[in-house]
Amino acid sequence: MKSTSAAVAASLVCLIVAPVLAQTTPSASPTATVPVPATKRVTCLATTASLKGQDKRDQLQLCLAQARLDCLKQAIDQKIVGESRKSFIKTCVGGDATEQQ
C-alpha cells in the first residue's frame, strides 16, 4: 500500500510540474542564428546535388532558367523596369542569373 501511495504522489507531482515546465520559454542566446531564406540558385543547386555529369548540368540550367523566368514574372507583376528590374532579378535568383554552371 505504501508503494501505491508513493506512485500516486509521484504521478501527481509529474502532473503539476509538467505544465509549469512546458510554459517556460528558453531564452534566446546572443549567438543564435537567424535562418536565411534560400535563394532560387541555392535551391537549384540542392535539387541537382545527387546528379552527375551532363545530367547535372542540364537540370541545373533548366532549374536556373525557370527561376529567372519566375523572378521576371514577379518583376513584371510589381511593375519594376530598367536597371531596377535587372537588379531585382539578380537578387531574386540569387546571383548572376546568366552565369553558366
Automatic annotation (TrEMBL):
Protein's UniProt name: PsiF repeat-containing protein
Stretch forming the signal peptide: 1-22
Keywords, alphabetical: Signal
